[in-house]
């Protein structure tokens, strides 16, 4: 097989075969990512039938997408009926799976074939331990078996790739890239304050303890001229609304909103804060909402946990989760300093370019390129 061309300038990789991506879903943003990958190398994509957006991923580009039945209670434990038939039909040189190493899908791909194609996994989890001892044991055991047969791995961030290496992926190439991306639906807003006075902060996400929303509300109330809009749902909402009902003029709960309305609220805010907290069993994997803020040119502040620092880079402010007064300090500075807020906004808009589908797709194919410099073997 001829060696693939270098794709650093976006040139198409020439292969005597194709890549098969087994994806978790296909929103318009995800379809844009796969369209970019397909532009660079022959690629087929299959998505599970339970994906709510599996029928809405049609784009102008010719992108090959098939829908698979996934019987089971959860995607991780689905059997992917029809997958083996598709693999035999396409005879891909590389299979890329968006899943976890302990899933039924990856066990099937990594352990079932006598002579398997190149296998790369796209994992999000950065904690294999769970409160249930049996589940933790099961994850570690199956991961060691499957990762020994895995040729490379993509993690959403460094904590994920570290977990993969600890789980059994030693001496194999890794890279950090998200499996989900966001699109910029218009130009970012002009840098600066959205309103004449005060600082409008927004939070978007689940209302659960590990997201640190309670600490965020308490901090905002300590900053003069600062208000907060909370978008999302979860078990913490009832408690939060009861405890802070007296501050309804500064703390507003908007509930669950549609994607377009979420973008609108982020655009109308000065700062998006993601105050996630790391626990023994849960650590923020990436923080996709940060990309939504960057796309709109909204400044970002986040706790320095999990994969968040790699997403934010130098475009925003990071603080220690155990030092909430640092969050109060930066909010106070942003409320008083227009030039600092404008700088944060400009940096956020510029940072988003690194996470657009075109950039992520090019880096993913570049990761595959060295792995594809092997002879194509048939398998059964």
In percent, how much strand structure appears in the residues? 15-25%
Unreliable stretches covering 5 or more consecutive residues: 1-16, 52-62, 375-380
- The CATH architecture assignment of the largest domain turns out to be 3-Layer(aba) Sandwich
Span from first to last CA? 20 Å
Description:
By secondary structure, the protein is α/β, with parallel strands linked by helices. It folds into two domains: 19-181 and 356-371, Glycogen Phosphorylase B (Rossmann fold), CATH 3.40.50; 199-355, 3-Layer(aba) Sandwich (Rossmann fold), CATH 3.40.50.2000. It contains 13 helices and 13 strands. The strands form two sheets. A seven-stranded parallel beta sheet has the order 3-2-1-4-5-6-7, sandwiched between helices. A six-stranded parallel beta sheet has the order 10-9-8-11-12-13, sandwiched between helices. The longest helix has 15 residues, at 133-147. The radius of gyration is 22 Å and the shape is globular. Mean pLDDT is 84; it is low at 1-16, 52-62 and 375-380.
């Amino acid at each position: 097989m001829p060696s693939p061309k270098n794709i650093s300038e976006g040139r198409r990789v020439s292969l005597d075969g194709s890549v098969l991506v087994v994806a978790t879903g296909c929103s318009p943003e995800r379809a844009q990512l796969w369209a970019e990958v397909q532009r660079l190398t022959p690629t087929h994509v299959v998505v599970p039938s339970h994906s709510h957006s599996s029928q809405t991923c049609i784009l102008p580009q010719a992108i090959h997408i098939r829908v698979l039945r996934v019987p089971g209670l959860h995607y991780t434990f689905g059997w992917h009926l029809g997958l083996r038939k598709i693999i035999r039909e396409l005879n891909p040189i590389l299979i890329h799976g968006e899943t976890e190493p302990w899933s039924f899908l990856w066990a099937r791909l990594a352990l079932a074939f006598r002579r398997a194609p190149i296998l790369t996994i796209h994992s999000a989890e950065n904690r294999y331990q769970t409160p249930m001892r049996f589940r933790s044991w099961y994850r570690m055991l199956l991961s060691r078996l499957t990762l020994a047969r895995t040729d490379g791995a993509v993690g959403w961030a460094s904590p994920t790739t570290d977990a993969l290496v600890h789980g059994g992926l030693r001496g194999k190439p890794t890279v950090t890239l998200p499996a989900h991306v966001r699109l910029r639906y218009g130009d970012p807003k002009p840098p600066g304050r959205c309103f004449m006075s005060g600082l409008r902060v927004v939070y978007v996400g689940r209302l659960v303890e590990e997201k640190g929303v309670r600490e965020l509300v308490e901090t905002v109330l300590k900053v003069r001229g600062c208000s907060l809009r909370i978008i999302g749902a979860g078990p913490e909402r009832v408690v939060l609304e009861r405890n802070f009902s007296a501050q309804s003029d500064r703390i507003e709960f908007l509930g669950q909103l549609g994607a377009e309305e979420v973008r609108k609220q982020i655009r109308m805010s000065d700062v998006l804060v993601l105050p996630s907290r790391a626990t023994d069993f849960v650590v923020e994997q990436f923080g996709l909402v940060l990309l939504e803020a960057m796309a709109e040119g909204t400044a970002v502040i986040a706790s320095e946990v999990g994969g968040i620092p790699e997403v934010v880079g130098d475009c925003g402010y990071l603080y220690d989760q155990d030092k909430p007064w640092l969050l109060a300090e930066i909010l106070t500075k942003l409320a008083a300093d227009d030039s600092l807020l404008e700088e944060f906004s400009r940096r956020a808009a510029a940072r988003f370019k690194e996470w657009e589908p075109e950039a992520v797709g090019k880096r993913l194919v570049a990761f595959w390129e060295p792995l594809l410099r092997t002879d194509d073997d048939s398998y059964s």
